[in-house]
Design a protein that fits this description.
254 residues; 30% strand; 25% helix; 13 strands; 7 helices; single chain; Rossmann fold
């Protein structure tokens, strides 16, 4: 059995401990190089699980734990023994207590990387700081923030989106060429001015930026708007994008 396969199995077997927030699985020492440990946070939005996890299974050098949230945000309840290099958000949960908010920010202050995917831009609608953390927000209802009224965004399924690489020199997009992906679009989101945009689209039902990077505390942040379903999960360009985003966020060189 390969080192990669063995550790994936160990991480997956420990998943139920995470849900209880009582025992944290400890990463196993590994002689392999360039390995990053990841907590993949889901909940609050349906998705097709088998093809999604198959995508993560294809990532060499990435050990992941499926962290499905049953109490909205329990992964941030106790971070005293936090073992992960990167958090991947694929959730659309809403409730997050003040303690959990502070713990989330403490992880970022320590340099834990963050990759936010697709519908996670609509998570934690009542937490203004979350927009600053990931660099944007898709609003689900009329919301006033800092005296500005934001209207709900719109979306459309089953589209072929032309994706343009706006920055070919960034480690996340290195080796990527412009590509087409069958996916879902979002339009009407709000964005932080400090974002460095990596990918754009010109589809009329979509916002122009679809991938960007930023920093929060000592953390490297990447948001990728793409990733609705199996057609996206199986797209080799998308897989490369997500893999390289995780490696970059975890400061692990190829």
């Amino acid at each position: 059995m390969s080192c990669q396969s063995m550790f994936k199995g160990l991480f997956l077997m420990s998943a139920f401990f995470l849900c209880s927030c009582e025992i944290w699985p400890k990463p196993v020492e590994c002689p392999c190089h360039n390995t990053v440990s990841v907590a993949v946070v889901t909940g609050g939005h349906d998705f097709e699980r088998d093809p999604f996890w198959k995508m993560f299974d294809s990532f060499d050098g990435i050990l992941y734990l499926s962290a499905e949230q049953r109490d909205q945000s329990e992964i941030f309840e106790d971070i005293s023994k936090w073992p992960y290099d990167v958090i991947v958000l694929y959730n659309m949960t809403q409730e997050i207590s003040e303690q959990r908010r502070e713990n989330f920010k403490k992880l970022l202050d320590k340099g834990v990387g963050l990759v936010a995917l697709h519908h996670s831009i609509a998570s934690f609608q009542e937490w203004p700081e979350y927009r600053k953390i990931i660099g944007g927000r898709y609003y689900l209802k009329d919301t006033v923030e800092n005296g500005v009224l934001y209207k709900p965004g719109s979306y459309q399924h089953d589209l072929d989106l032309n994706i343009k690489v706006a920055n070919r020199q960034h480690p996340i997009t290195l080796g990527l060429e412009d590509f087409v992906i069958h996916d879902e679009s979002y339009k009407g989101s709000a964005f932080e001015s400090s974002n460095e945009v990596l990918l754009t689209t010109n589809h009329p039902t979509s916002d122009e930026p679809v991938c960007w990077v930023s920093n929060y505390g000592k953390s490297r942040i990447c948001y990728i708007q793409l990733g609705h379903g199996p057609e996206a999960y199986g797209n080799e360009n998308y897989r490369q994008l997500v893999k390289q985003a995780i490696k970059w966020a975890g400061c692990v060189d190829e």
